[in-house]
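>> Question from a student workshop board

For tomorrow's exercise we were told to take the sequence and the ligand below, predict the bound structure, and bring the output to class. My setup keeps failing. Could a helper post the expected result so I can at least see what it should look like? The ligand is NAP.
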Amino acid sequence: MHLATRTPAEAGPETMRAMAFARPGAGERPMPCALPIPTPGPNQLLVRVHAAGVGRWDLLERDGVFARLPRFPHVGGSEGAGVVVEAGRETRGFREGDRVYGLVAQRDPKGGCHARFALFDAGLAWPVPPRLALDQAAVLPVDGALAAQALHAVLQVREDDALVVFGASGGVGHFALQLARNAAVRTLAIASGGDGVRLAERLGADVAVDGRRPGFEREIARFADGAKRTLALLTAGGEAAARLVAALPAGSRIAWPHGVAMPTIARDDVVAAGFGVRYEPDAMRAFHALAERGPLVPHVSRRLALERLPQALEAVAAHHLGRIAVLAA
Ligand SMILES: NC(=O)c1ccc[n+]([C@@H]2O[C@H](COP(=O)([O-])OP(=O)(O)OC[C@H]3O[C@@H](n4cnc5c(N)ncnc54)[C@H](OP(=O)(O)O)[C@@H]3O)[C@@H](O)[C@H]2O)c1
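>> Workshop helper replied:
Here is what the output should look like for this input. Compare the format with yours to find the bug.
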């Protein structure tokens, strides 16, 4: 037990600052409150949160679209990074003071990372790669693991493939570009806005176009010309996604993560499927190995204080680049 290392700036020795929803609903805003510091189970780490990611899934959770509702007041935040304060007795390889990043299951009754302290299951927590700052590590696991699974497990990219990334300047998209470059896969980045195109170019996209402009899909035929295989990862849906799908050459493979509002695909000459992400320990261990070796550098475009979580959620719903983080420290 290392409660002495918790700072007196907390609301009390056993309570912490957190941002919590009182009830589900699209109009709801998380409110600051003092909640008990959670107690780690034998296989858990109590982590003093430095930073936490804010993503689209937080909006879905806020809006109460999932079949199972969390317990209220509810602290969200599925990913974060910080320092171990206490390691459960059955954990191995973690010590007080270690810098870690990790995942918390959505709707966990013990709360997520939008708080001063959070519990990580030891199997879903990893040492922060030395080349990354804590706020970068905080936004890595959800979208980074999704991008890695999309490219390596679902699309099974190979050197010299031609990969179209739709939503390339967003969370998943900007990780996908970096992983593709690392695998010597050519990319056409369909990014959002001029700033999105500039980010995609900086991250190594071979060609980058603005998918908010009419006619962006004309670039696809030129890009795919001569490629043995054309693959497409769609991280956003809607009418622009439909135009993209219509422009892909016959034989293309298309994948999108669950959560994307995909239009109906009326083509029988492409292979198309949505996929669910696995955040199980085995899959995540493989992801962490990738994160340690490089090549992923999370682009954190905005950092807001934890108390400004409502504004962070608005920023996720609006135009943004890469990822958005809240800082609890
Ligand atoms: N466990 C899971 O299953 C899981 C985990 C993570 C993510 N997801 C899903 O994966 C999807 C992507 O997540 P994310 O975190 O990457 O979201 P995100 O950061 O919002 O990325 C989506 C991107 O698509 C862009 N976009 C939309 N329309 C476009 C267009 N016409 N042209 C170019 N870009 C366009 C958006 O631009 P703006 O910034 O301008 O809006 C945004 O950058 C979401 O649906 C999410 O729910 C699922």
